[in-house]
Amino acid sequence: MSSIVCASHLPVLTRAFTLSKGDVLELGTGVYSTTILKWLCELDGRTLHSYENSLRWFRKMAKNPVQCQKLNFVIDWDKIDIERKWGLAFVDHSSNKRRWLEIKRLAKFAEYIVIHDTNPEYRREYRYYRIWPLFKYRYDFKKYSSHTSVVSNFFKLDKFNL
Length: 162
Description:
It is a single chain. By secondary structure, the protein is α/β, with parallel strands linked by helices. About 30% of the residues lie in helices and about 25% in strands. The protein has a seven-stranded mixed sheet with strand order 3-2-1-4-5-7-6, sandwiched between helices. Strand 6 and strand 7 (about 150) form a beta hairpin.
């Protein structure tokens, strides 16, 4: 798999960052998303709150700490404190079947929610169909084989024509 497919969410993620204000939430860390979000947050004076439930990924991300990031290990996704205002939330965590639950919790709080792996063929696995009706606005980025969507209840998404 080429790196551009692995990082297919970056065009949407970086656009959402530039349009948003306030703290950033990352559910599930990764080489591409965590790195770019740390850099952007450092440059913009914002705080990145990253949550990871894989001990392997948590340890990997903890090796390169930066002042702008608060890295949290997750034992129980239901107990993480995410129901507050966010400029941007990025959802790409395991278990895949849980993602819709966190998105539902964020619907009233995050200006923009960027969701990775929104391809129609993942319908049963990710269950995003449960959250689409919760949002006023939705944009689907389908340029690469792994789709990324952004949703918002606060802002129209006309600036996402990527």
